[in-house]
Design brief:
This protein is of the alpha/beta class. 39% of the residues lie in helices and 16% in strands. Helix 4 crosses helix 5 (106-122) and helix 9 (223-234) packs across helix 10 (238-252). The longest helix is centred in the middle third of the chain and has 17 residues, at 106-122. It binds zinc ion.
Length: 263
């Protein structure tokens, strides 16, 4: 069975955390060998860090989601310090979201900028969230030389033009369950065209369960459905696609360590 990676999930969220042993068993049974549990604020980071500490196949990130409010807003130094732990492999999720926040969003840009700086300082790649803000997101990544840290466009939901810009910057593209949705033709096009050494797959669990489980509570095991769908779009065998995306994950997040065979 190929080893898949769920490159973006939130298994620390209550709905999943409350049934974690089952969630992890389901993932193992589905061939999902690794997962990256992504931070959305600083307050819950200790929980994520200890998950990664307890489970060698779970990795952590540190960061504050662009829509998060009322929590700590760390500067680059603080983020970099929290990223020192050996199993914290990425900075994020960070970026710009003009869909869920309104008004003057300079604070969001400032927050994003601190994350880019922390990524450059630590060499940990960025996990980018962008919604209704693709042009500004790409402009900031370019202006602040984010290519020095690299990263991934998580839950990709833009068109080929934005994908091309991200690829030109050396970034990876991660597909979530959205790519399996019927009306997602622009995203399917990106999934067909993206180079094989730049693709990741993810659940973004508990959100966005892929077809045929759309609408259910998502979990890392379900990433196999997204992977099968993208492999089919690309006309490559599932096993090959699983291997490629897993290799891509460990190339991008170079602090993440593969488990030795049989452990
Ligand atoms: Zn997320």
């Amino acid at each position: 069975m190929p080893n898949l990676v769920d490159s973006h999930c939130h298994i620390n969220f209550q709905d999943l955390a409350s049934q974690l042993p089952d969630i992890l068993t389901n993932a193992a049974n589905a061939g999902v060998g690794y997962m990256l549990c992504v931070a959305v604020n600083i307050e819950d980071f200790p929980e994520i860090a200890s998950l990664a500490e307890e489970h060698p196949h779970i990795f952590a990130s540190v960061g504050v989601h662009p829509n998060a409010q009322n929590g700590e807003d760390p500067g680059a130094e603080r983020l970099a310090e929290l990223a020192l732990k050996h199993n914290v492999v990425a900075i994020g999720e960070t970026g710009l979201d003009y869909f869920r926040s309104e008004g003057n969003l300079d604070w969001q840009k400032k927050r994003f900028s601190e994350h880019i700086e922390a990524a450059k300082q630590t060499g940990c790649p960025l996990i980018i969230h962008t919604r209704s803000a693709a042009d500004d997101t790409m402009d900031m990544l370019r202006a602040e030389n984010a290519e020095k840290a690299g990263g991934v466009m998580h839950c990709f939901a833009e068109d080929w033009d934005i994908a091309r810009q991200a690829l030109d910057l050396g970034f990876y593209i991660s597909f979530s369950g959205i790519v399996t949705f019927k009306n997602a033709e622009a995203i399917k096009e990106v999934a067909r065209k993206a180079p094989p050494d730049r693709i990741l797959v993810e659940t973004d669990a508990p959100y966005l369960a892929p077809v045929p489980l759309r609408g259910k509570l998502n979990q890392p095991a379900y990433v196999q459905h997204t992977a099968r769908h993208v492999a089919e779009l690309r006309g490559v065998p599932y096993e090959q696609f699983a291997q490629e995306t897993t290799d891509n994950f460990f190339r991008l997040f170079s602090k993440a360590e593969r488990l030795s065979e049989g452990s």
